[in-house]
UniProtKB/TrEMBL annotation:
Keywords: Cell membrane, Cytoplasmic vesicle, GTP-binding, Hydrolase, Lipoprotein, Membrane, Nucleotide-binding, Phosphoprotein, Prenylation, Protein transport, Transport. It is a lipid-anchor. It catalyses: GTP + H2O = GDP + phosphate + H(+). Its cofactor is Mg(2+). This is small monomeric GTPase. Its EC number is 3.6.5.2. Gene3D superfamilies: P-loop containing nucleotide triphosphate hydrolases (3.40.50.300). The lineage of its organism: Eukaryota, Metazoa, Ecdysozoa, Arthropoda, Hexapoda. GO terms for biological process: protein transport; retrograde transport, endosome to Golgi. Belongs to the small GTPase superfamily. Rab family. It is an enzyme of class 3 (hydrolase). Pfam families: Ras.
Amino acid sequence: MVEDNDSGYGRTANKSTLLKIVILGEGGVGKSCLMSRFISNHFDDHSFHTIGVEFRNKTIEVNGKQYTLQIWDTAGQERFKSLRTPFYRGSDICILAYAIDDRSSFNNIKMWLNEFLHYAGVKNGIDRYPFMVVGNKSDVSSKDREVTYDQLKQWCEDNKIATYIETSAKNDNNVVEAFSMAVQRWGELEQRAEKELGMLHHPDTVTLHGSTAASSIRSTCCSRFTDV
Ligand SMILES: Nc1nc2c(ncn2[C@@H]2O[C@H](COP(=O)(O)OP(=O)(O)OP(=O)(O)O)[C@@H](O)[C@H]2O)c(=O)[nH]1
Ligand SMILES: [Mg+2]
Protein backbone atom coordinates (compact mmCIF):
# COMPACT_ATOMS: atom_id res chain seq x y z
CA MET A 1 0.00 0.00 0.00
CA VAL A 2 1.34 3.45 -0.85
CA GLU A 3 0.37 6.67 0.86
CA ASP A 4 -0.09 9.63 -1.45
CA ASN A 5 2.14 11.75 0.70
CA ASP A 6 4.97 13.84 -0.70
CA SER A 7 6.61 14.88 2.50
CA GLY A 8 6.22 11.70 4.47
CA TYR A 9 6.53 13.61 7.74
CA GLY A 10 4.10 14.76 10.39
CA ARG A 11 1.02 12.79 9.39
CA THR A 12 0.94 10.06 12.00
CA ALA A 13 2.68 9.17 15.21
CA ASN A 14 3.82 5.83 13.83
CA LYS A 15 7.45 4.96 13.62
CA SER A 16 8.84 4.92 10.12
CA THR A 17 12.21 3.77 8.86
CA LEU A 18 13.93 6.32 6.65
CA LEU A 19 15.71 4.75 3.68
CA LYS A 20 17.84 6.61 1.18
CA ILE A 21 17.42 5.20 -2.34
CA VAL A 22 19.63 6.29 -5.22
CA ILE A 23 18.59 5.70 -8.87
CA LEU A 24 21.42 5.34 -11.39
CA GLY A 25 21.59 4.60 -15.11
CA GLU A 26 22.31 6.11 -18.53
CA GLY A 27 20.78 9.44 -19.50
CA GLY A 28 17.30 9.00 -21.00
CA VAL A 29 16.39 5.58 -19.57
CA GLY A 30 13.58 7.13 -17.53
CA LYS A 31 14.96 7.58 -14.00
CA SER A 32 13.23 10.93 -13.44
CA CYS A 33 9.99 9.59 -14.91
CA LEU A 34 10.12 6.56 -12.60
CA MET A 35 10.52 8.88 -9.61
CA SER A 36 7.68 11.18 -10.77
CA ARG A 37 5.38 8.23 -11.42
CA PHE A 38 6.11 6.79 -8.00
CA ILE A 39 5.92 10.03 -6.02
CA SER A 40 3.11 11.91 -7.75
CA ASN A 41 1.65 9.47 -10.28
CA HIS A 42 2.68 11.80 -13.08
CA PHE A 43 4.38 11.09 -16.44
CA ASP A 44 6.15 13.64 -18.61
CA ASP A 45 6.50 12.80 -22.31
CA HIS A 46 9.14 15.51 -22.71
CA SER A 47 11.17 15.12 -19.57
CA PHE A 48 14.41 17.19 -19.54
CA HIS A 49 17.79 15.70 -18.69
CA THR A 50 18.54 15.98 -14.97
CA ILE A 51 21.48 18.13 -13.94
CA GLY A 52 23.20 16.85 -10.81
CA VAL A 53 20.72 15.27 -8.40
CA GLU A 54 17.21 15.83 -7.07
CA PHE A 55 15.47 14.10 -4.20
CA ARG A 56 11.89 13.63 -3.04
CA ASN A 57 10.26 11.70 -0.20
CA LYS A 58 7.40 9.27 -0.08
CA THR A 59 6.08 7.09 2.72
CA ILE A 60 5.02 3.54 1.88
CA GLU A 61 3.98 0.46 3.78
CA VAL A 62 5.72 -2.83 3.05
CA ASN A 63 4.83 -6.01 4.97
CA GLY A 64 2.94 -3.96 7.54
CA LYS A 65 5.83 -1.59 8.27
CA GLN A 66 6.16 2.08 7.39
CA TYR A 67 9.10 3.32 5.36
CA THR A 68 9.87 6.88 4.36
CA LEU A 69 11.78 6.61 1.12
CA GLN A 70 14.12 9.46 0.32
CA ILE A 71 14.62 8.95 -3.41
CA TRP A 72 17.64 10.50 -5.09
CA ASP A 73 17.32 10.87 -8.86
CA THR A 74 20.72 11.36 -10.51
CA ALA A 75 21.91 12.71 -13.85
CA GLY A 76 22.95 9.89 -16.17
CA GLN A 77 24.94 11.95 -18.63
CA GLU A 78 28.70 11.45 -18.34
CA ARG A 79 29.40 15.18 -18.02
CA PHE A 80 27.53 15.24 -14.68
CA LYS A 81 29.54 12.47 -13.05
CA SER A 82 31.31 14.74 -10.57
CA LEU A 83 27.97 16.27 -9.53
CA ARG A 84 26.21 12.96 -8.79
CA THR A 85 28.85 10.70 -7.22
CA PRO A 86 29.17 12.61 -3.89
CA PHE A 87 25.55 11.67 -3.16
CA TYR A 88 26.06 7.88 -3.29
CA ARG A 89 27.52 7.58 0.20
CA GLY A 90 24.94 6.74 2.83
CA SER A 91 22.50 5.09 0.42
CA ASP A 92 20.53 2.14 1.78
CA ILE A 93 19.31 0.89 -1.62
CA CYS A 94 20.61 1.33 -5.16
CA ILE A 95 18.34 1.06 -8.21
CA LEU A 96 20.20 0.40 -11.48
CA ALA A 97 17.99 1.42 -14.40
CA TYR A 98 18.20 0.81 -18.13
CA ALA A 99 15.69 1.05 -20.99
CA ILE A 100 14.60 -2.20 -22.64
CA ASP A 101 14.74 -0.51 -26.07
CA ASP A 102 18.34 0.62 -25.57
CA ARG A 103 20.87 -2.21 -25.54
CA SER A 104 23.81 0.01 -24.66
CA SER A 105 22.05 1.25 -21.50
CA PHE A 106 21.77 -2.41 -20.44
CA ASN A 107 25.39 -3.17 -21.37
CA ASN A 108 26.47 -0.26 -19.18
CA ILE A 109 24.71 -1.45 -16.02
CA LYS A 110 27.96 -3.01 -14.84
CA MET A 111 29.69 0.35 -15.15
CA TRP A 112 26.96 1.94 -12.99
CA LEU A 113 27.25 -0.83 -10.46
CA ASN A 114 31.00 -0.31 -10.21
CA GLU A 115 30.63 3.46 -9.99
CA PHE A 116 28.20 3.01 -7.11
CA LEU A 117 30.37 0.47 -5.27
CA HIS A 118 33.34 2.79 -5.54
CA TYR A 119 31.76 6.09 -4.50
CA ALA A 120 29.33 4.66 -1.94
CA GLY A 121 32.16 2.77 -0.29
CA VAL A 122 30.34 -0.60 -0.32
CA LYS A 123 32.91 -3.20 0.64
CA ASN A 124 31.09 -6.33 1.66
CA GLY A 125 29.96 -7.85 -1.61
CA ILE A 126 27.20 -7.21 -4.09
CA ASP A 127 24.98 -9.97 -2.69
CA ARG A 128 24.96 -8.24 0.72
CA TYR A 129 23.78 -4.90 -0.61
CA PRO A 130 20.19 -4.25 -1.77
CA PHE A 131 20.60 -3.61 -5.48
CA MET A 132 17.56 -3.60 -7.73
CA VAL A 133 17.85 -3.74 -11.53
CA VAL A 134 14.99 -2.07 -13.39
CA GLY A 135 14.36 -2.46 -17.13
CA ASN A 136 12.18 0.57 -17.89
CA LYS A 137 10.00 1.38 -20.93
CA SER A 138 8.35 -2.05 -21.00
CA ASP A 139 5.51 -0.41 -22.94
CA VAL A 140 7.54 -0.13 -26.17
CA SER A 141 6.49 -2.37 -29.03
CA SER A 142 8.18 -5.75 -29.37
CA LYS A 143 9.97 -4.68 -32.54
CA ASP A 144 11.73 -1.91 -30.55
CA ARG A 145 12.75 -4.16 -27.68
CA GLU A 146 16.53 -4.74 -27.54
CA VAL A 147 16.83 -6.55 -24.20
CA THR A 148 14.71 -9.56 -23.23
CA TYR A 149 13.49 -10.35 -19.74
CA ASP A 150 15.59 -13.53 -19.81
CA GLN A 151 18.70 -11.47 -20.47
CA LEU A 152 17.87 -9.30 -17.47
CA LYS A 153 17.36 -12.39 -15.31
CA GLN A 154 20.59 -13.99 -16.51
CA TRP A 155 22.61 -10.82 -15.94
CA CYS A 156 21.30 -10.49 -12.41
CA GLU A 157 22.03 -14.13 -11.62
CA ASP A 158 25.56 -13.79 -13.02
CA ASN A 159 26.11 -10.68 -10.91
CA LYS A 160 24.50 -12.01 -7.71
CA ILE A 161 21.66 -9.50 -7.71
CA ALA A 162 18.45 -11.05 -6.40
CA THR A 163 15.89 -8.39 -7.32
CA TYR A 164 15.00 -7.19 -10.81
CA ILE A 165 11.89 -6.14 -12.68
CA GLU A 166 10.65 -4.57 -15.91
CA THR A 167 8.65 -1.35 -15.51
CA SER A 168 6.89 1.31 -17.51
CA ALA A 169 6.81 4.80 -16.02
CA LYS A 170 4.63 5.74 -18.97
CA ASN A 171 1.93 3.10 -18.43
CA ASP A 172 2.41 2.90 -14.67
CA ASN A 173 3.43 -0.73 -14.86
CA ASN A 174 5.33 -2.27 -11.90
CA VAL A 175 6.61 1.09 -10.62
CA VAL A 176 5.26 0.76 -7.08
CA GLU A 177 6.22 -2.92 -7.17
CA ALA A 178 9.83 -2.02 -8.02
CA PHE A 179 10.21 0.25 -4.99
CA SER A 180 8.38 -2.20 -2.72
CA MET A 181 10.57 -5.10 -3.86
CA ALA A 182 13.69 -3.05 -3.22
CA VAL A 183 12.52 -2.25 0.31
CA GLN A 184 11.65 -5.89 0.90
CA ARG A 185 15.14 -6.92 -0.21
CA TRP A 186 16.61 -4.30 2.12
CA GLY A 187 14.61 -5.89 4.96
CA GLU A 188 15.84 -9.40 4.13
CA LEU A 189 19.47 -8.31 4.11
CA GLU A 190 18.93 -6.34 7.30
CA GLN A 191 17.60 -9.45 9.04
CA ARG A 192 20.46 -11.53 7.72
CA ALA A 193 22.96 -8.99 9.02
CA GLU A 194 21.27 -8.86 12.42
CA LYS A 195 21.53 -12.63 12.68
CA GLU A 196 25.18 -12.54 11.72
CA LEU A 197 25.88 -9.95 14.35
CA GLY A 198 24.11 -12.11 16.90
CA MET A 199 21.88 -9.18 17.74
CA LEU A 200 18.54 -10.95 17.54
CA HIS A 201 18.90 -12.01 21.17
CA HIS A 202 19.98 -8.54 22.26
CA PRO A 203 17.41 -6.19 20.77
CA ASP A 204 18.69 -3.27 22.85
CA THR A 205 21.81 -3.18 20.72
CA VAL A 206 20.14 -3.19 17.30
CA THR A 207 20.07 0.58 16.89
CA LEU A 208 23.39 2.32 17.32
CA HIS A 209 23.28 6.07 16.83
CA GLY A 210 20.47 5.63 14.34
CA SER A 211 22.23 2.95 12.28
CA THR A 212 20.84 -0.54 11.83
CA ALA A 213 22.65 -3.84 11.88
CA ALA A 214 23.01 -4.30 8.17
CA SER A 215 24.17 -0.79 7.66
CA SER A 216 26.91 -1.28 10.22
CA ILE A 217 27.93 -4.45 8.42
CA ARG A 218 27.71 -2.83 5.01
CA SER A 219 29.74 0.25 5.90
CA THR A 220 27.37 2.56 3.97
CA CYS A 221 25.36 3.30 7.03
CA CYS A 222 22.26 5.25 7.10
CA SER A 223 19.00 3.62 7.85
CA ARG A 224 17.37 5.89 10.33
CA PHE A 225 14.17 5.83 12.28
CA THR A 226 11.88 8.80 12.09
CA ASP A 227 8.46 9.73 13.37
CA VAL A 228 5.92 10.34 10.62
N1 LIG B 1 7.96 4.83 -23.75
C1 LIG B 1 8.43 5.23 -22.56
N2 LIG B 1 9.13 6.37 -22.48
C2 LIG B 1 9.60 6.74 -21.25
C3 LIG B 1 9.38 5.96 -20.09
N3 LIG B 1 9.99 6.57 -19.05
C4 LIG B 1 10.55 7.68 -19.55
N4 LIG B 1 10.32 7.80 -20.88
C5 LIG B 1 10.78 8.87 -21.76
O1 LIG B 1 12.19 8.82 -21.85
C6 LIG B 1 12.73 10.13 -21.91
C7 LIG B 1 13.77 10.30 -20.81
O2 LIG B 1 13.17 10.18 -19.55
P1 LIG B 1 13.88 10.75 -18.21
O3 LIG B 1 13.08 10.27 -17.06
O4 LIG B 1 14.10 12.20 -18.32
O5 LIG B 1 15.30 10.01 -18.29
P2 LIG B 1 16.48 10.06 -17.21
O6 LIG B 1 16.94 8.67 -17.03
O7 LIG B 1 16.03 10.78 -16.00
O8 LIG B 1 17.61 10.90 -17.98
P3 LIG B 1 18.79 11.82 -17.32
O9 LIG B 1 18.13 12.78 -16.39
O10 LIG B 1 19.45 12.50 -18.48
O11 LIG B 1 19.73 10.90 -16.63
C8 LIG B 1 11.54 11.11 -21.79
O12 LIG B 1 11.21 11.54 -23.08
C9 LIG B 1 10.44 10.26 -21.20
O13 LIG B 1 9.18 10.71 -21.62
C10 LIG B 1 8.61 4.76 -20.21
O14 LIG B 1 8.34 4.01 -19.27
N5 LIG B 1 8.17 4.44 -21.49
MG1 LIG C 1 16.57 12.55 -15.16
